[in-house]
Amino acid sequence: MKPAYWTLLFLLLLPAAGSSVATAQDLTGLPQIPLASFEEGPTDISYEVDLSRRDSHQFQVTIRLSGLDRPSVELLMPAWTARYRLRLFGRNVFELSAEAEEGLMLEVEQVALGRWLVNTEGVGEANIRYKVYANEPSPFAAQLNTSHAFLNPAAVLMYLPDSVDEPLTVRFKLPAAWKVATNLEPTFDPAVFRAASYEELARSPIEASDYQEQFFTTRQTNITVVQSGAFSGLDQRALLQGLERLTTRAVDLFGMAPATDYLFLYHFPEVNVREAVGHPAATVVHWGFYSRWEGLDPLLRITLQAFLHSWLGGIIRPASAAGATLTQPTVTESLWFLDGAADYYAELLLIRGGLQLPAVFLERIGAEITALQNTPARSIQPVTTASQEVWYRDDLWYRSPARSVDHRNKGFLLALMLDLEMRGATGNQRSLDDLMAFMAAWYGREGREYEGSEAVLRAVGALAGIDFRQFLTSYVLGTEELPYERVLALGGWSIYPVAEEIATTGFETREEGTGTLLVGAVEEGSPAARAGILTGDRIVAANGSFMVGKLPEIVAASRPGDILTLRIQRGMLEEEIAFPLGFGHRQAYVVEPVPSPTPQQQAIRAGILSGIP
Questions:
Q1: What average pLDDT does range 42-47 have in this prediction?
Q2: Domain range holding 59?
Q3: Entry pTM
Q4: Which of 609, 606, 612 is nearest to 360 (CA)?
């Protein structure tokens, strides 16, 4: 018998004995910036962003403050944004000055990294001016060039720490023929926008260019799709149709839309970057070197992953997120659920929307199992610890398989297991779909925050009418091997190992500072050695990408014999060295349907793939 709804709510509201939730203070090694406090903040805050210095990649920003009644004003640049790494955006700020009425220059002191103090005693208004160098083609940063401007606002606009809840306006000085796309509140002036707070501003990406846009409506949600950059080969009609199918399926899954008006921002740069990030009312995708020959599937998949984050982590938020500040990011031990479920449903919704074959879903499951089983750290690091330490994954050594688990990798498999276990325990009447809808309603719509992994598992247990404490203890908080065969059998799938050839570089690397890798031991006789790679070489680019920290991912996505091109620095000289990747072996796993599934296995499999019990 299914538990009554009030029973579920009662179970969820009970405090968990001995539970602990990570806070921002648990993130060691990050700068702790003491902030001054004042009784009152400015009555008016407005930004002006001048895009005229496009050729030198420099935003010119003016912050206009009025109603000042304090001896000084603090200004900070955020240290992070919607990615698991510290960015320290203050490093791009220069030529900061402050001026009061009638040209009176105010004293400015930089008191810490990314933090300035302006002496405002005796003045009612002040203009703060500074420049920001921005030429990073990433949805997590900012870029200004002759073809477009993109702002992750946290990368460009300073804030007043005592006035983060104050309403504000942003005005753009635009080149001719450019316009602005953003989910900020518009005004009668197409270059001026409003935000209820700096937090809302920071979560509202902005594109300015002569972009193209398309529109559609799904489930009473107005969707705007913007494209800029090199997208001449893009089948815009097919992209729009795919987005409409996927967003409709996602809204149906959660039972609500993330926002009444939603924005997709696509930029297609001619550089090797493919990244996406989801915000509460917008998804940004930067997709470099787009080619019509690769199809839309990879683009739609990364879009959907980010779009799902509009709920997971953006609207359905863990309690630990309340401890985050713009200089001290959040740490949560349930990130495996937020990111893993997003990746899981990104695959499923492509199938449910008729855009991907079920066989691709099984290939993804096999690939995720292969990745986890070739991660020795799975036996020593719980996925909750990996979730808390995600901020370290920018370090090449830390994210090595011997050191840490990828929380998204194991989170995907845990989401699959929970779905199968819930369906198996309830005769396919309850599933992970029900959990998503419940969390969207109980936490997202009502603005509540959930208490981490234990709250997620209590909800699963209440919905399915079974005790999930062992699952929590063994696989989430613990490091027991996941029972693939037993759980996959619930959906009528089997698993078996195979030997797989993989690409290898033939040398070891370690990070050296920011943006370079240092070559360690080189395998004698390897293609890299024959091509002239030497111990001590500095790698500054790989296959045209200066994001060399992604070299392991580049190699993992390649096949033996594929050509790897490295830009090498030796002393004062640089050269490019190209060589074929070598051959290696690992144990991989294949997941496929069983020959003669039972009626229950067929029902569970169909329920997962269709979303219909």
A1: 80
A2: 39-208
A3: 0.84
A4: 609
